[in-house]
Design a protein that fits this description.
Layout (H helix, E strand, L loop, with lengths): L1 H8 L3 H23 L7 H36 L19 H6 L4 H12 L18 H7 L8 E3 L5 E3 L9 E2 L5 H4 L7 H14 L16 H7 L3 E2 L9 E2 L5 H4 L7 H14 L5 H5 L6 H7 L3 E2 L1
Parallel strand pairs: 3-4, 5-6
Antiparallel strand pairs: 1-2
């Protein structure tokens, strides 16, 4: 029987191989379900979890951004001058002096400009006229306007403004020494036009006649007629002279009455004939526009 049992348990090579394969397949069938479960995944729960994570991230980003904006806002505000509201008081800009302006927080130079404007005959007719003062910052204008009290305006029983009759006085301004504020006292002259007049005066070296204002852009014939009774040019003339015998080409051509061609003819004549002695000799130079030369002669020095 023992021999029969051994014969029964004796397997060939092919049979042993089949047994091994069967054991491997059985093992896989038993183990694989552990790794590949058939349980359904709750996708809605996964989506909710992901959404919560995104919401938390957005909240954190929002808080970070708000904090950075707050710090930027703090830094921005700190760049403006600190305002001491306790130093403010009601004032009439037409009557207060330099020290009162300084107490209101206005710079000394700006206060002097305001006083110069008032002394020259300028008047503040409305609190918004503060914006016309050069050098007075916008934030300071907004700060001062509620405290402006103008003596020209009073309230009657019907709450209607009653204006005092303004005193009319003649204004005379030297065109060669006036600043922009003084020029703006004349009717029809605003800040831009006053700036153009001063710029052209600097290019000329000074005005020799009121009629030269017609060469400034924005000065009409009717405006010039009105200005002739207000502005004047003092004598003796104090204009900047051009040294004809030493000035170079580039400097000479900067003058409004000298073209490039004209400056070349003057320099060429000087090189070939030597020193120019007077205006008659200038008139003898060939190629020069006689009208421009006539206007230029008061500015020449020999």
């Amino acid at each position: 029987m023992k021999q029969t049992l051994l014969q029964f348990l004796d397997f060939s090579k092919k049979e042993r191989t089949g047994i091994y394969v069967l054991l491997f397949v059985s093992t896989c069938i038993w183990v694989l379900p552990v790794f590949f479960s058939n349980e359904n995944i709750d996708m809605s729960r996964v989506e909710v979890t992901m959404l919560d994570a995104k919401i938390r991230k957005l909240k954190n980003d929002s808080l970070t951004y708000s904090a950075s904006q707050f710090h930027e806002s703090e830094n921005h505000v700190s760049t403006y001058p600190k305002i001491d509201t306790q130093s403010l008081f009601y004032f009439d800009p037409n009557t207060i002096g330099k020290q009162e302006w300084i107490k209101l927080g206005v710079k000394e130079k700006t206060a002097e400009t305001i006083l110069k404007y008032v002394t020259a005959g300028g008047r503040f007719r409305d609190k918004h006229d503060l914006s016309k003062i050069f050098g007075l910052p916008h934030y300071q204008i907004e700060r001062l306007m509620p405290y402006v009290v103008l003596s020209e305006v009073k309230e009657n029983i019907w709450d209607e403004p009653v204006y005092k009759k303004k005193e009319i006085r003649q204004i005379h301004i030297d065109l060669n020494t006036a600043d922009s504020i003084s020029l703006m006292l004349a009717p029809g002259i605003g800040q831009k036009l006053a700036g153009r007049i001063i710029k052209y005066r600097d290019r000329l070296g000074g005005f020799v006649s009121i009629s030269q204002l017609s060469e400034v852009y924005g000065i009409t014939d009717s405006l010039l007629i009105r200005l002739q009774s207000i502005w004047f040019v003092s004598f003796p003339l104090q204009v900047k002279k051009l040294e004809v015998n030493s000035i170079d080409l580039e400097e000479l051509r900067k003058h409004p009455y000298v073209s490039f061609s004209m400056s070349k003819h003057i320099i060429a004549y000087r090189k070939s004939h030597g020193r120019i002695t007077d205006s008659e000799e200038m008139n003898g130079i060939v190629g020069i526009d006689r009208d421009k030369l006539a206007r230029l002669i008061p500015y020449l020095e020999y």
